Amino acid sequence: MIDVNDTLAGLSLTEKAALLSGENTWQTRAIPAADVPRIWMADGPHGVRKQVGSADHLGINGSEPATCFPTAATIANSWDESLAEEIGAALGREASGQGVHVLLGPGLNIKRSPLGGRNFEYFSEDPELAGRLAAAYVRGIQSEGVAASPKHFAVNSQELRRMVSDSIIDERTLRELYLTAFEIVVRESAPWTVMSSYNLVNGAYAHENAHLLQRVLRDEWGFGGAVVSDWGGSNDAVAAVRAGGTIEMPSPGFDSAREIEAAVRSGDLDEADLDARVREVLTLVERVTARTVPAAVDVTAHRALARRAAAESAVLLRNENRVLPLAAGTRVALMGDFATTPRYQGAGSSLVNARDVSTLAQALGASTLDLVGTARGFRRDGVADAALVSEARRLAASADVVILAFGLPEIAESEGSDRGTLALPADQIALLNSVVAVHDRVVVVLSAGGVVEVPPLDGAAALVHGYLGGEAGAEGMVDVLTGVVEPGGRLAESMPLRLADTPTAGRFPSTARTAEYREALSVGYRWYDASGTPVAFPFGFGLGYTTFAYSDLRVQDGVVTVTVTNTGERAGSDVVQVYVGRSAPSRMPRPTRELKGFSKVRLEPGASTTVRVPLGDRAFRYFDADLDSWQVEGGEYEVSVGRHPGDPTLSATVHVEETTSGGAAADGSRETPTKATRALTDSEFATLLGHDVPASAWGNGSLGYNDPIDRISTSKSALVRLVFRILDRRRRKAEASGHPDLNILFMFNAPFRVLSKMSGGLATRRLTEAVLTVVNGQVVRGVGAVVSAYFRGRRLEKTSRERFRAASERPRTTRRSR
């Protein structure tokens, strides 16, 4: 075991500076003579992705086999904290079994828009639901001695130019929506690490944002762990140390260590700040190496858990004439390309090398149903094929029920790019229309990491959204279709009728330098509720095969109690959802109602139970920007219990005491002067921010260190513009094939600084600046500078490695050394 204090006291300045960046893509640096081992980090929000060969951070190269569980967006629909914790523990065991010390997940960013390309990795549009489920994952992972790393902190909402985009957001919206989920995780599960996001937040990069990392995360919430940068997300190593960023990943070589050491020697960086960060590293190493025997992994049990989780998270959206569940012996025709080539996870860094992936065709064939045939029905690339439709139509005539396996192709949802539409491919809709013309018992099963526009699917008698169900998702779906498992899923995000109805329509993703959060608090159901915009299916919605009744609602001493009765003929589950909203007019704009508690209940037919849902400190608070603190507006509040925000089955009024003394709530000086039913104007947004709206346009001059690489399309050099066209041609070719080129997407979205920050020491900042000389039109001078910077950098790296090796091999003392 490491004695953190003694070890820290015995480290040299060189050693301390070096510990704050990685040794390679996935490991931290070791100091053997001080008994500080290297530790291994790996992606793993829904399955461990440990690479032992050629390493990358984008899920391109292979990794060790692991159980692929349903993605976070899927599990969120379960609303089941115990299930989330069980999955977390399984992830922790598999990580431990593979020698992984830090599992990079779960992801819990708020789904600002359904177009977010990485929404499949995130839980919800609501911070209460996202935070509590993520906290359960963290508790499970860390119960196995492995550090969880909830991510991405914070306000990481879009993939486009994610490494350079500046999220401009007012403090109240930041606190109430985008930080609350992280606050819940930190306070309720004490993660050992947190991963900072790529983007800037109000002008400062997240990994060097003192307001986020020191003021909020550490001082207010009491976080005592290490902050790990997203891979390539560190900008200024010295600023990060000063602000609370602990470990820079992956390895930038010793470039950052040299900067940190020089800053301490010059007095630009207080060594106390450096020591604080090193203490966090050593504490992390101490925690994750405490377990000396790797966990035993029961692969069979983990796959069974993955199957159960997929079934319990599937959302039954429509079930006309009770076509579901399907009785044993039902003659079923299965159609759709997803039936034999499943989509069970998203693309990017979370990509798991799954052990045993099942298909819907295999799962149906092994069930009690009579599978009369399978037809492809449509092409994955969206190209219309009349022959495939005709084949499917003929097959439909031979079946009692037709199951259509629909979904979004891989290219639609990927790390590195955002979606452009909520529509399903037209050829899938054409197949549905053709089949419903000859058959009235059609079941559509959706595979997608988020919401889609469903009005075109109105012809289907039943609609089940399985999201991305993991390696056993097909079997879990068949369990639901046949009634072996009651569909227990409830939507963790709203399903709009059309993209134009969403709160960020026309503004997401931002192509500008800034992403302006002008919808403020009106995200997801808060927007639809306040604006009166109808949705296809509301947040919290989901059907089952049985029915439930609520009665005897009481709110007393901060606890909501309600009696739930299974009034149907089958055992089943329901989610009791508690919403809170003002009864009397408020002094400030606020959502009509907000989720403040929930509980999942399972009951046999005719059984009743009393459900208790505590209303904690978060139930009535708001953040006062003028007082810079949480406050409570006194008065009457409506506490409602229902199945979604627009279904207050039962409600009660409670009186809450005031805590406010002056500030925004008293005079409205920083509050939005309009109802939150549209994007704010420039003046309204400036009022909310408390300052002028920052300029959003990209500059027209020379490109710089933190400009996105895709802006080489505007380079003064014809040669550089040619390079852009070649790369862009590769990107478009990959998109046409249906499989995104993650390398190109990452490169285009990334700033020039990644050339040195992610080189492992092959490049330095000086070399990056030389490349920019070429990009900005001074080709001859720039090429010479590149060559010079490269060889100078190699010499510096060699010297730094030798200094670090010499320092780390010297005899240990307990003296504090400069």
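(the above was protein one; protein two follows)
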Amino acid sequence: MVSSNDDLRRALDRVGEMPYGSGQIAAVEQVIQQADAAGDDEVAFAARMLATTAYVYGGEPARSFVTFSWCLADFDNKPRPWHNRYRHNLLWYFKYMVNGLLAFPEVPLHRATAVLDDMERRYREGGHSLQAVYKMRHRVARHLGADDEAEEWYRRWTTTPRDELSDCAGCDPSTQIDYLAGTGRDEEAVALAEPVLAGRLSCTEQPQGVLSALLMPYLRTGRREEARQAHLRAYRRHRGNLADLWDIGDHITFCVVTGNEVRGLELLERHIDWLDRAPSPAAAMMFAASGALLLGRLDTSGRGELTVRRRAYGERPAAEVPVGVLAGELTEHARRVAARFDERNGTANQSAAVSRRLALTPVGDYLPLSATVRRPAPAGATPAGATGPAPAAEPVLPVRPRVPLDLPATATPTELLDLADDAWRTDRDDDLVTVLAAFDERFADREHEPLVAARRLEFTAVERHRADDVAGAVAVNREAVQRYRQVPDPLREQVVTSRLAVLLALTGEPEEALALAGPATAYLAEHGSGAQRAAAHDRHSVVLAETGRGEEALAAADRAAAEATDADDPHLTARLALRRVRLLELLDRPAEAGEAALRARDLYRELGLAEPYTVACLGYANSLDDPARAVEAYDEALRAATADLQLPVRIGRARALVAGNRAAEAVEDLVEAVAICVERDIVDGAAMLRWELADAYRRAGRAVEAAEAAEEAIGALDRLGQQADADRCRHMLVGVYLSLGEQEMALTLLDELAENLDGPDNLPHRAQVLEEAGQILYNQDRDNVAAQRFAAAAAAYQTAGLRLDELRARRREIAALSWAGDPEAALAAMARADALAASLPVESVGQTGAGADQPFDESGAAGSGGGVDPDPGSDGSEQSADGSGHGHGHGHGHGHENGDEDGPGGPALRWERAMVAETGARALLAAGRETDALDRLAGVADRLRSIEAFGEASQVDLLVGELLVRLGRPGDAEPLLRGTLGGLPEQSPLSRQAAWWLAESLTALGREEEADALRTAYALNVDE
């Protein structure tokens, strides 16, 4: 419970720092109750003013009517000194009331118009512009469907001068754009938006309001990419806000009219349960109409089997509702609410609006909203978004005319099997399939002699293996070995035995594989032909490699290559060359692997075989350290790649481009790679590649796409149970959100991470994300909440044994509490930090752990699907820990925070101790204890200079000079401040501050001319 009026005010300040939503609403209601109980009329009034805004933006506008009416009555009937501070806000809130009252059909229309009349009266009496009043009158006319009146009020609204009570530079145009679009003036709407979007919009409702209003104008005027970007950017801002349910419905509608019903269904499922707590009947009506439009389209287009999951609510149980059924329910809901509005208004305008939405049809062709989502293409067509191999000026491989396969009608079973052997040896897979099909068709009913039956079994094993039935291939090969033993044919028996050994090695049976491979190879080496000897050593090398004997495998491969010289078989020679590449890669000998790959590439170029040629090109590209050369090698592979090899080539090329700081070029390859994984149902590979794509978008400065891809990746990784990967992707996404200005989203994600990392093995990372959340809050001037995060981070660092990181977090806690206006808490935090700093001798401090200079590991672990092994990495770094960008005026760098030049922790600890002293001095200054603050800084600047932290030393000198002036010692302050100012770079943010205090010291010394000259030189206003 709050114990005093000061505590009440601090509690109200903390509530004001909270994000909009149910949490803030509950907190402000508690303050109202406590203020009423304490008889604190000022806090009671201020809390209800805050509650009015909290209700409007937290999705409960009906409750704002009560708090606003209370405040208005208190303002009118019991004038108090503090009321004047809230006069502007009270007049502003009239706009909330008019909009809110219109949105509830149970509120009589005359009540809304009476509030609007009262608004106009007060604006006139206060000498304010009526621009905002005319906007509200336009709003009422549009709601009623009074077109002529709406147009007249629009004219007066847009031609009346703006003032401080006008809506912001984004919200006014948003409503204008919506009106222009609704009256068919799309080009005017777009033209109006251009200067607005070019400016800086920081209102709670912008820029998402402008962008949402532009969706249909952009589409209808052919600005399809602008429409796509507007949807992606705006929906991101809307999706977390219950108050924006109407706007979310507009985005579902946009998905329908652009052919993105699947994405629309995703949005609907995400928000359908918000209907149960819709901010207003009007928002519920339009959201329901949008949902009905979407579901009806799905149902009538042959996708009626789809369902929408609805959570339990009241007496309604949780259920999977078919889209057709839910479409009917939502249509009925929208029309029922519209009828209530029309009954109140005496018009049919709202029912007409619902009908227009339900009747919408696609605008233009399909507009892909996600780069990695393809629509099914007609047979033989190139899928939308597929780029295929990069075009080449000339063929990479020589064009070899295909020799027609000759299958004589009189061919015997043995002759057909000989043709199959030749097709297999020369990598003509299609011919092999054709020959075996002919064999089975012609001789399926014949009982073959044992040798023919055994040979056909060999090929049956091949067929099973290629169908990914390795166990079946093993069984068939065992049978073939027995058949050859019965013939007998010891050479063929040992050939098949060595193949069986390979399959056993691949299926995790190393002991039997080795037991079979060695003797089979020895027999064939003694009795086989050159080709058989080479192939036997080759298969033995595979078995050795699969059982972890890489060097022996390479030696066996070398023996195979030597034997192949007698075989005069270029296909065998090429296969062996490619095998050598893989073995050298396995042994991590990239230079030799690259040389081997070039030889294999040249051999397969001569043979004109695209697939192994591409594999060889990949081997060469993978061996290169130089990203530019690697990209060239991947380009060569891409020009020859068959469909089966597009995925690894795209992935490799993308990574080379990212490594070469060409992330923007890598995007296309990663988009294609994700699409391929989706089409082939490689779920884990698609998830990891979406993460990699998000990182490429981030590096390329395409933050919106980065966020979309990362969110998709996180959802997929969570579904796969890969929480560690999902959390690393979440951490990357935090930085993306911050670059988009979506700070609340970033904070929410950091809170999720902190919860996910709540385990003993994850304490350093949990502490880090808590500290990062504190920094964001601190930069937002939400200092009370920031202090809580810093304290939690310090506790986690303490438990993890990372004492220097703990000290940094304690220091930040002091700063946040000081700026929060809670000097007692700040000084208590200072005492904790001092005790910790004193307990850390230099020799006992190890390297810091997962603090802000050693960011959360965002690199991707190897994916298990599709050979995908992304490593997105991160270039994240700590934001200024001590106020840079905070608006409180005392920021600096910290280049020595993790230094380790004089033994473990030395410079880092000295830097941190010095900065704890400086931050504590500021807390003492805020508490009015200037002398203690000055004593605390003795020798601190010199210690900082001893570790070359010159910027921080200047900051401390400046603070010492300020304290000396405050303590009436200008003679001591003047030389210190003059030296500090002279040592600062001309553009340093500290220069004006140093000049200010130097001028103050000169004035105190009676040297007014020098002081005035200094103020003039630095453009200092004496009243600053």
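Reviewer note on protein two: Confidence is low (pLDDT under 50) at residues 375-393, 844-854, 859-904.
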